[in-house]
Amino acid sequence: MTGRVVVIGVGNPFRRDDGVGPLVAEALRTRVPEGTVLTDSDGEPGRMLGLWRRQDAVVVVEVVHAHPGQPGRLHTLTAERAARCAVRSASTHALGLGETFALAAALDRMPRELTVYAVEGSDFGLGRGLSTGVADALPEMIRHVAKAIDEAHDRLRHASALTDDRGTA
Fold first, then answer.
1. What pTM did the predictor assign?
2. DSSP string spanning 61-80?
């Protein structure tokens, strides 16, 4: 069985920079290959785990508080690195991505591959719209995520072809 590419934009569009994840997912809606699932999430761990299957390649798009921070700075992290970085940076949600990934690992619910694209934010107050640093980084983040989606589809197709050649699933 082959997996899907699942893109999860994490955040709250009514908390300024926290809305970047859903904005990226929406911006990609007309640009992704068939077989891509685009969704958003408030970051609640149980709901996050319900968005993917073990065979999937998952791309999470998130904003982070970093101390010291540089608003607009982009980060690409594996699930393991995101879990380690949880002590140095924090999500805007009650539980950060590190805790979500630790829960997924403990429950044997980690996807085949998981990558986090994060941008450092500065304004998490009430309202819509991004701070200047995050807004300036948005086009580059969209390009990075679009490229990651294409590469993940290529890896999944390659893995599926290898499985088909071996005659096993």
1. 0.87
2. EEEEEESS--TT-EEEEEHH
